[in-house]
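User: What would this chain look like folded?
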Amino acid sequence: MKKHWYVFLITAGMMAASCGQNTNNKDKIEKETEVVDGLGNQIGQALDRAAVQYKHMMTLLPEGEFPKTYHPKTDKFEGSGSGWWCSGFYPGTLLYLNEYNADKVLKGEADRALDLLKKEQYNTSTHDLGFMMYCSFGNAFRLDPKPEYKEILIQSAQSLSTRFSEKVGAIKSWDSKEGDFLVIIDNMMNLELLFWATAATGDSTYYDIAIKHADTTLKNHFREDHSSYHVLNYDPETGEVNKKRTAQGYADESAWARGQAWGLYGYTVMYRVTKEQKYLDQAVAIADFVLNHPNMPEDKVPYWDFDAPNIPDELRDSSAGAIMASALLELAEYVEAGKAEKYGQDAKQMINTLTGPEYIAAEGTNGGFLLKHGVGHIPENSEIDVPLTYGDYYLVEAMLRYLQ
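Assistant: Here's the prediction, encoded as structure tokens.
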């Protein structure tokens, strides 16, 4: 076990973890924000709607499954097993909602889902254990620091670490054929679990892996304009880049919106924990790329790809907007006043749009999901213009961050 002085410095930073953002209770939040601007009331209504929706979702969820999406055209609710990369967002959202306005029903459902999910702590076949385990058990531990939750999170970090290659300097994302080592920009979001593990155990191995992965991604994943490729294929023997692609976007050289959101959020977290200027510079560069892009709509909810060919008639991706909004609210805390004001205002616009009637589901509709109009994977004709669990999770997180 390796221990360094920075182990103790990051502990405080992890208390404000993205999947464990501190929030206040409903009454206090509403009292403090109602005099600030009108958005506070709109957010309160959206959070109340989310609680109603998730109780409706509970009646639709097949036994032993987690929500995945809902198909409005066919009125079909789709669930998944605990091994699906989105499984942690359901209990995470329930915990956020219960934290905002204590609700025994939501808390009981969160506990039930956590019990189903805990076996994934041993899953070494996925890079998404940060999403799965930290957005769920990370919130659970923050709110109720049970030893069981701590051990589950530590084991999850150990399982994630098995996918790290010293030769490549990164955590392997998707498994593929022999000779491939695929790394996607999404993987930046799973590093927070590793930082937490170092803070919790004093073992800097997890921290070191996160740093190496972030640095390798910083070196290879971004174009000159600071947009990101989606997936890189490395040579596992030499660590050299074999190919750069954008699998879920319009084209390899296009800027897939959710990919830019993952990068923005990921490097904001990197700066929060390390205070390394290069990570702040990268987060700012990504933010400026997306916010100043000529194809960013005035309401700040991005098209599914900034380079999609039929803009303005392309689909928006509400999930990308939700992730960006949450990230920008945190990033605004780390930059000079001018940028802070811009990032805060743009995040406010995103939240204002996403909590309006175009995107918030009516009670009892949308399969119980809160947020409409997410885009999963257009090239594979999968999850197109549907609700997505991570869209809900990051919108709820962004709303609570704004109110706080």
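The chain has a mean pLDDT of 93. If you want, I can go into more detail on any region.
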